């Protein structure tokens, strides 16, 4: 069994690795790791509040009604089946739930889900879930936020 | 895993596969896809796999995993890479099976298992086993 000192060391080492790959996390006082790593679900599944399967147009679950093609439009179409729309309101994160679609060269790379606190939660691919500020994941790996969708929080699925 | 000396071809016995219902054996994989990798080539392939896995692990979509530069390096090894990939998949399920798809032009993953990584890897290992048996 690992000692508390070992656990703290591993946690620090892990945070260092993520901050190297996502430099924006270095200046994010709110970021933290919130789960164990898992390859059973990805960022898309996490944003859709599932943890038992990976979502994706090629080798993942994808709603039947949606075209199996990776584009910002197709990702928006999938989230539309979950109740999200592109209309932006000024309502607070306590009232609306938002998902942010990241893209690089117009190709979607990542999806993050906003928490009621206003912070965001992301599954880093096959790695850990983290809590973070939205801009902290912008950069070389995920590009920038391309689209934000929202729906009333009261209509959203409960978190898993 | 013990490998032959530098510059020597790797033999089937150098691959440490565990027996199992869905696992391909070294012999089965090598019969079909003779590796013929030198030690330097093998090290280069293993480095490409390690680096690809690290970066690709951040991506949720296969399209991006394929776009990581090391992926092309792995695929360029062609059939020689297959026993190494099979061994890696036997140890730990991963999306490295995407390289098998590009190398062989096959896709044994059917609709019902999409999204289930262990099942997708299992389908590939079964396919390799079947394909090797076909060659015997």
Mean pLDDT of chain B: 79
What gap, in angstroms, lies between the N and C termini of chain B? 26 Å
Give the end-to-end Cα distance of chain A, rounded to a whole number of Å: 28 Å
Indicate the radius of gyration of chain A in whole angstroms. Answer: 16 Å
Order of helices and strands of chain B: HHHHHHH
Low-confidence stretches of chain B: 1-22
Shape of chain B: globular
Number of helical runs of chain A? 3
Q: Level of helix content of chain A? A: 10-25%
Q: What is the oligomeric state here? A: heterodimer
- Coarse structural class of chain B: mainly alpha
Tell me the β content of chain B: under 5%
| Count of beta strands of chain A | 6
What does the largest sheet of chain A look like?
6 strands, antiparallel
Spatial ordering of strands, largest sheet of chain A = 1-5-4-3-2-6
Strand-residue fraction of chain A? 15-25%
- Structural class designation of chain A: alpha+beta
| E-strand count of chain B | 0
Radius of gyration of chain B: 14 Å
| General shape of chain A | globular
Could you write a compact summary of the structure shown?
The complex is a heterodimer of chains A (about 160) and B (about 140). Chain A contains three helices and six strands. Chain A has about 160 residues and is of the alpha+beta class.
Folded structure, characterized:
- The complex is a heterodimer of chains A (160) and B (136).
- With 160 residues, chain A is an alpha+beta fold.
- Chain A contains three helices and six strands, in the order H-E-H-H-E-E-E-E-E.
- Chain A has helices at residues 4-21, 43-47, 72-80; strands at 32-33, 96-104, 107-114, 120-123, 129-132, 144-152.
- A six-stranded antiparallel β-sheet of chain A has the order 1-5-4-3-2-6.
- In chain A, a hairpin with a 2-residue loop joins strand 2 (96-104) and strand 3 (107-114).
- Chain A starts with a helix and ends in an 8-residue tail after the last strand.
- Chain B starts with 25 loop residues before the first helix and ends with a helix.
- Mean pLDDT of chain B is 79; it is low at 1-22.
- The A-B interface holds A 21, 39-40, 42-45, 53-62, 70, 107-111, 123-127, 141-142 and B 55-64, 93-95, 98, 109, 114-117, 120.
